[in-house]
Write a structure and sequence with these properties.
The structure holds 2 protein chains of 2 kinds. Chain A folds into 2 domains: 2-90, no CATH class; 108-475, Porin (Beta Barrel). Chain A contains 3 helices and 17 strands. Chain A has helices at 2-19, 30-90, 214-220; strands at 105-116, 138-141, 144-151, 156-165, 168-178, 185-193, 227-236, 242-250, 267-278, 282-302, 311-330, 340-360, 378-396, 401-416, 432-443, 446-458, 461-475. Chain A has a 16-stranded antiparallel barrel with strand order 1-3-4-5-6-7-8-9-10-11-12-13-14-15-16-17. In chain A, α1 (2-19) runs antiparallel to α2 (30-90). Chain B is an alpha/beta fold. Chain B folds into 2 domains: 19-180, Nitrogenase molybdenum iron protein domain (Rossmann fold, 3-Layer(aba) Sandwich); 185-293, Nitrogenase molybdenum iron protein domain (Rossmann fold, 3-Layer(aba) Sandwich), CATH 3.40.50.1980. In chain B, strands 2-1-3-4 form a 4-stranded parallel β-sheet, covered by helices on one side. Chain B has a 4-stranded parallel β-sheet with strand order 6-5-7-8. In chain B, α3 crosses α4, α6 (160-184) packs parallel to α10 (281-294) and α8 packs parallel to α9. The longest helix of chain B is centred in the middle third of the chain and has 25 residues, at 160-184. Chain B starts with a helix and ends in a 5-residue tail after the last helix. In chain B, 51% of the residues are buried. Classes of the chains: A alpha+beta, B alpha/beta. At the A-B interface, α2, β7, β8, β9 and β10 of A face α3, α4 and α5 of B.
Chain lengths: 482, 299
Amino acid sequence: MKHRSLTALAVALSFTALAFSPPAAAAAGDADLAEIRKQLQQMKEAYEQRIAALEQKLAQAAGVAAKAEGTAAKAESVAREAESAARQASLRPPAAAPASGFNPEASLILQGQVRRMKDVGDRRIAGFWPTEVETRRGFSLDESELVLAANVDPYWRGQAIVALIDGEAEVEEAWFQSLGLGNGFGLKGGRLRSGIGYLNEQHPHAQDFADAPLIYQAMFGEGASYTQDGVQLKWVAPTDTFFEVGAEAGRGAAFPGSERNKNGAGGGALFAHVGDDIGVSHSWRAGLSYLQTQAKAREATFADAGGLDAATASFDGKSRTWIADFVWKWAPEGNANYRNFKLQGEYFQRRERGDLACANAVQSLGNNCDPGNTGAVVLSDYRSRQSGWYLQGVYQFTPNWRAGLRYDRLDSGRRDFGANAANVVVEDFRPKRVTLMADYSWSEFSRMRLQLAQDKSIPGVTDNRVWLQYIMSLGAHGAHKF
Amino acid sequence: MHKMFLALLALLALPAHAALNVFATVPEWAALAKEIGGSRVAVYAATHGLQDPHRIEAKPSLIARARSAQLVVATGAELEVGWLPVVLRESGNRNIQPGRPGYFEAASAVALVDVPKVLDRAHGDVHAAGNPHIQTDPRNILKVAEALAARMAELDPAEATAYRSGVQAFAAKWRAALARWEKAAAPLRGVPVLVQHRAFPYLTDWLGLREVGVLEPRPGVEASAAYLAEVLARQATQPARMVLRPAYQHDAPSRWIAERAKIPAVTVPFTVGGTPEAGDLFALFDDTLRRLLAALPTP
């Protein structure tokens, strides 16, 4: 068919070309005209012959094709059998993907919210070492997390999570993980969220509330998780009951530690997890973790005991944190699609011991540490033992809806500021918070959450907060941990 | 400390158990490994017949079992994508990582259908490789059996002949059963059906059932009342004679349609253990056919 129309087109074109020949042809005599007519006639005949010949060839070809089709059908069924036989023989999935198939699994997490809360000037978790606390009210965008992960080769896997926000790209995590050590060992290296506790490894988008438990914020600062550059070695015991131990060594630059510019490890962690199922409907995991960090010149601003200008306190010393955690999940018949319940809790205790240097804050006119604003520094011992816990339950009652309740309780515990107790305000306080949430998921990739919280983390302030948050994940189907 | 270390070493040096340790993601492959290997295999099924294999969590118990497995038998085609990769990586067991002989995907032995032409989540929870519910066609079971037996023989060469004869005996019994099933299922040919989840293309293909509608607007998306009403309205022009549901899904949508369209709702066991009767692979198809045939009006 195609051939035929092409030939017709060629003929038509040549006639057109002739018809639009230069006007010089018009000036030619009758003899010339007759000659031209003759030539045209010849050309026409020649083309007609060629068209007929082509048509004949096509007809033949069609016949052959029909036969071929029958043979092909047979061949195809033979081929199909051969293919399945070959597939079974090789036991390898077919090499289907083009080179782009090697691209990493990519996903992008979009998170944002509208938040209603009190405008408190000095927002903090009272009684604890001051760290950054979220203060944005109204509409805001959280970090957009870009996740790239892939097997590097048969021995290693790599993953990077880059948080994008307002002109910044922060490497939240970037690590490699062993696939080939065997015997239950797993090695991870790079920048990683520590395996301590239960929530610590989970990114905010995978958590059940819009913000981290209060104790995570008090213990690890604004990021509400302990992350360090280092290595992690884990070992899973060859037992039917899950038992895992892990050790980490790293830079230890994140709060409660600090950047110290030294060789070797600046922080370390140990953890053990045990877990199992009870019947088909229940599963659980419990863990115990220890984190040790060292701080040098870890600075924070404290209120002055005499009501004068704020003081800068700088801590040098050791920080030890113990965490006990558990999570228990229930799903009727082990089928979590329609209904399931998750109960989790963690208890933290931190002891710090070292020296505290109290000085004037920048542009201060003087305070108890340095009344004359002469650059004087008051040195003292610093010791603390502080604790906190949270308990939360989340119930999914239809495939799309979940509701949750969380209770946070912190205890500023014992804080010994030595000689500096007279210079800075030492708050004795037990912050607490109750949080209610309900979320709706259109699919496992999109979620909208309403959260109500009554926050009492500052003496005398009851902050009733309302959040409306969204979490959308684009791209690869990331599997989450238990 | 020193003693503990020695004890640990001794533990690591222990010879592998005599039986081949198999970790199957779903009950049908656990049953199949048992059919082939008999007493030569110790089989652990990660899920049971009433669990949705798409939505399992990487539970500690699964990591512990994967740790000592010598062979992981998965369906593949992204069925277990939400949990198995984490279980495998966290297990610290190098032999069962994808690409190693200790990792077997049943879907690699059969030709998949419903391979999406467009990959877009707007179409729901689509599986890029094709529909993973291959176990509903017994002819696929046979193909997987042959491939699996070959893999078991490769991993446990000492028992290779036993696995070969195991699969031969199974195949012979299976072929006989196939002939019996296909004869019994003749009345089902051409029967129009509704399905609650796009889980049955292999079953309908095998039995010649005609799928005329799905109770999910898109894969993995629960039907709204309006959508169900739409499906129900189509009954007038394109009447289905029964509605099929895999046992692990709850029955509300199919019951809703069944009551209003006055057609039977059939719970298909879907896998071994999906119904009390489906105790093994043979019983799975016996029960599937019994339930489908019972839904046909008696002549």
